Amino acid sequence: MKADVVVAGYGPAGACAAIAAHDVGRSVVVVESAARGGGNARYSGGFLFDVPEPADVEHLDALCFGRTDRAVLEAYATGLHGIDPWLRSLGGDTAPFDPPPGRLPAPFPSWPHFPAGKTIRYRTVAGGTGRRGEALWDLLDAAVRARDIPVRFDTAARRLVLDEDGGVTGLVAGDEMISAGGVVLACGGFEADAGLADAYLPLGPSWPVGHPGNTGAGLRMAQQAGAALWHMYGCFGWFAFRTPEFPAPFALDFFGASHLLVDGDGHRFADETGYEVHDRLRALLTYLPRNPNRPRLPGWAVFDEAARRAGPLNGLLGTPNDYTWSPDNSAEVDRGWIVSAGGPAE
């Protein structure tokens, strides 16, 4: 088979690449290892982030701790400014996301003391059903289908095809070799590969709470073509609840401030509401040698009745599990996942 462009991975990045290539007149084929597309977007908050000028590049530089080339940040900022009109060109619409002031567990805006301060803007795709991330994905998927771009599901990208000089000339996907003028690797992350997670994620032990197909295939294929790895230390995550009844952990968020996190020895180790929502796991790296303990997992979340009734412990972040957490966590009490007690000591 031949195509001008072959895209490996059918999540938002793969869909956007396929649409862009098609709209400049290229023939495109997409391959996806799973039985459906969407990647982690199906489980995400679906937020569209923009940083107003002129503080955009300085704000991004602060987020990257000065470790990203200025030209890359400038290109990224330009891309952020174009997201909203581009989605509108696909027939979608967006709406501002304005949460109530002081909302837990994810206060907005994140990092309000960085250069852009509180001028950061968040939008979400309007309409749709289900989670905000699903609405974003449904819009992109509909645009791909409207263009009759072929998507081959249950077809994993296996390796790049290289010529004698090391140039990429195609992709082996499933049992077929696809010749292409360009290959886009949009295969997702590596969190579902235990070996890669152990090698690169500093916060172990870890388990993927999202798409099980993120096994690092894109990293391996890029290295096959001579690519270097960059910023592999970057990650975000949640404390999560694991049960053998379901394959993926349930990411935990508290909608009430009255909760504590304690480690396996019963010692508190974090400022529970003091971390940015995506960065809270870094509490595991900030223990001090003069303290009598270091965080030992698994641990416990201890909370009162007000926090239980404030909102579902799992719900801010989705999950591949076929389960909907109850709004007041009462069903999880009945399941024995949440243990009631007469007081903190008990």
Give a short summary of the structure.
With 346 residues, the chain is an alpha/beta fold. It is built from eight helices and 13 strands. It has helices at residues 12-23, 56-63, 70-89, 132-146, 194-200, 217-224, 305-310, 330-335, and strands at residues 2-8, 28-31, 48-50, 94-96, 121-125, 151-152, 157-162, 168-173, 176-185, 240-241, 250-251, 259-262, 300-303.
| Structural Rg | 22 Å
Unreliably modeled segments: none
Q: Which percent range fits the helix content?
A: 10-25%
Quickly count the helices: 8
Task: Give the overall silhouette.
Answer: globular
Q: Let me know the number of strands.
A: 13
Major β-sheet, in short?
A: 6 strands, mixed
Strand content: 15-25%
Q: For the residues shown, what is the average pLDDT?
A: 91
Report how far apart the termini are: 65 Å
Structure description:
- The protein has 346 residues and is an alpha/beta fold.
- 24% of the residues lie in helices and 17% in strands.
- The strands form 4 sheets. It has a 6-stranded mixed beta sheet with strand order 6-2-1-9-8-7, with helices on both faces. Strands 3-5-4 form a 3-stranded antiparallel beta sheet. The chain has a two-stranded antiparallel ribbon with strand order 10-11.
- The longest helix is centred in the N-terminal third of the chain and has 20 residues, at 70-89.
- The relative contact order is 0.14.
- The model has no long low-confidence stretch (mean pLDDT 91).
